[in-house]
Structures are given as C-alpha cells and as structure tokens.
Write a structure and sequence with these properties.
The longest helix is centred in the middle third of the chain and has 20 residues. The chain is globular. It is built from four helices and no strands. The protein is mainly α. The mean pLDDT is about 80.
Length: about 100
C-alpha cells in the first residue's frame, strides 16, 4: 500500500506531466527529470515495488497519454475556498490504504 508521501510524489509527477501540454520537447525533459526524481525518492523509501510502479507510470504517460485541453488549468482561481489537492489526497488515502 502506498504511503501519504508516495501519493504526493506520484501526484506531483502527474502535475508536472500536465504542464508539458503535449509539447514533445517538454515531455521528453519531464520524462528525464521524473525518472531522476523517482530514483532519488526511492532511495529514501523502503522499496516495496514503488519505484518500479512509478517508472511504469512515467513511461506509460510519456508514450500513451495525450493531455486533453480540459485537463490543463490555464487560470488559477485564488478565490477558491479549498485546495483540490487537500481534498483529493485524503480521499485517495482512505480508498487505497
């Protein structure tokens, strides 16, 4: 089962992927940086398959996933009463832990 830190790490990897906006050069740089971050992150964790699964996620996103325009948040609404991450993360933890 994934720990809170691992969930946050995977979410940050995915958010970085969305920032590439399907630009091939940015996607390639994201892939390289994400692999490096994953290797560094997994050195600090007890590896129960997390590193392998994270690398699979990175490669799957890189090769197979095309970002839909609706997934890219162009404007940030500072008037929001809550942070989406603060809402979604506890739900994921409750569901998978």
């Amino acid at each position: 089962m994934l720990m809170n830190e691992e969930f946050e790490f995977l979410v940050s990897i995915y958010e970085g992927f969305l920032k590439t906006k399907n630009d091939q050069i940015h996607k390639f740089m994201w892939k390289l940086n994400s692999i490096t971050k994953t290797m560094k992150f997994s050195n600090d964790q007890s590896d129960d398959g997390f590193c392998e699964n994270a690398l699979r996620m990175i490669m799957s996103l890189f090769h197979n996933y095309i970002i839909d325009d609706s997934e890219i948040e162009e404007t940030v609404d500072n008037g929001s009463l809550f942070n989406d991450r603060d809402v979604i993360l506890p739900i994921l933890i409750e569901e998978f832990v």
